[in-house]
Specification:
The chain is mainly beta. It is built from three helices and 18 strands. The radius of gyration is 23 Å and the shape is globular.
């Protein structure tokens, strides 16, 4: 009897463990995006470049995400996501192990989702999906990514709330603590965005404010020696700098403000969207520039689903900088994406950009003729024009 009782108890415990396991899940996932790329006027000497390049449409990544049922409709959630370059195996996002995302929180169908950690801001979550970047990535985004349309910035130390969807409406709010002793607001970031979708129409708008986490002394200008320290990405937001001369000279900004709005219309195989953003790079007495630099961005996109497996798209972006330096950038992009399966696709992307006016040089701080720099690649040309073509493959697992 004793042996039978123990066996029964063991079976009961195994059943309970199985039930608990069925209420939890952990998923390993990833993506590799690789291409052969040609760049015309790839540097200040206007040399041409042929190379392998990773992450045109989406950045290479692997990650873990999971949920646990806590009862009453409440679930614990987490996500850890690491970026890497498939060409050399190095980690992206400044060498962070989980530089793309790293957060934990709780979610409820009725009350929304609350998370803490390193996360995307609400504009990336709600506004960016209604733009060309959502379909074809870096080749179709803002020059220099001055408005973070290509997700150049992620936010550390962030507390974020995402509402449920009510009749097509949803909103998000985020606040990131700078964590500087004696200065609560130093290095902080905060943002809010909302979206509405009804039938074929979708609209979204949001505002993002990030502050430089470096101390005034570390950003101080020494005449003839430097042009002001760079943006401190170790506190909250990483800034929106992609290495080009378009906004590279403003890494000593005290504050960056970004306002974005986008709308999309889908009818049959056609997708159309329009967007506008306004980015402000604000200096203080310790910045390497004196006047506020402003960027206004207008973008348009048309996509056509030729077959269930093939999408083609045409994008146009006009970017105008004013204030500290005045320059304009006109960019036209073309793309085609063909699905070989549910997880593997081939793509061909191309873009041409024409620059005019003047911009501040990030190395010397001088005002120079504007050089072209397509999308968020960071190839700063010495010429007023630049072209990029990429032929690639993307695989998801």
């Amino acid at each position: 009897m004793k042996r039978i009782a123990l066996s029964t108890l063991s079976l009961a415990l195994l059943g309970a463990a199985g039930a608990a396991h069925a209420q939890s899940s952990v998923t390993l996932y990833g993506l590799i995006d690789e291409s052969i790329q040609y760049v015309h006027n790839a540097n200040l000497a206007n040399d041409h470049l042929i190379q392998t390049f990773a992450g045109n449409i989406q950045g290479d990544r692997w990650g873990l995400k999971g949920t646990e049922d806590l009862g009453g409709g409440l679930k614990a959630i987490f996500q850890l996501e690491s970026g890497f370059d498939v060409n050399n195996g190095k980690m992206s996002q400044g060498g962070r192990l989980f530089g793309r995302q790293a957060y934990v929180g709780v979610t409820h169908d009725m009350y929304g989702t609350f998370t803490m950690g390193r996360q995307y801001d609400p504009l990336v979550d709600l506004v960016q999906p209604l733009t060309a970047d959502n379909y074809f990535g870096s080749t179709f985004t803002t020059p220099g990514d001055v408005d973070n349309n290509d997700n150049s910035s992620r936010t550390s130390n962030a507390i974020k709330y995402v509402s449920p969807v009510w009749s097509g409406f949803q909103f998000e709010g985020m606040y990131a603590l700078g964590g500087v002793a004696g200065a609560t607001g130093a290095g902080q970031s905060w943002a809010g965005a909302a979206t509405w979708s009804g039938g074929p129409f979708s609209v979204a708008a949001g505002y993002f404010r990030m502050e430089n986490g470096n101390t005034p002394a570390s950003r101080g200008v020494v005449p003839g020696v430097n042009q002001g320290g760079t943006w401190n990405a170790n506190v909250t937001s990483g800034g929106t700098f992609d290495g080009s001369n378009i906004n590279g000279a403003y890494q000593s900004a005290k504050q960056i403000d970004i306002t974005s709005v986008a709308g999309q219309y889908v009818t049959g195989p056609f997708t159309f969207n329009l967007r506008y953003s306004f980015a402000q790079y604000k200096p203080d007495a310790f910045s390497g520039f004196a006047s506020q630099q402003k960027y206004q961005v207008v973008g348009a996109f048309a996509g056509y689903q030729i077959t269930p497996a093939m999408l083609v798209g045409l994008g146009y972006i006009y970017t105008h900088g004013s204030g500290d330096a005045s320059a304009s950038y006109n960019q036209v992009s073309l793309g085609a994406d063909y699905n070989l399966s549910k997880r593997t696709d081939l793509y061909l992307l191309g873009a041409y950009q024409k620059a005019s006016g003047h911009q501040r040089d990030q190395s010397t701080g001088a005002i120079v003729d504007a050089g072209a720099s397509v999308g968020s690649y960071g190839y700063g040309a010495g010429s007023t024009s630049q072209e990029i073509v990429s032929l690639g493959i993307r695989h998801k697992f």
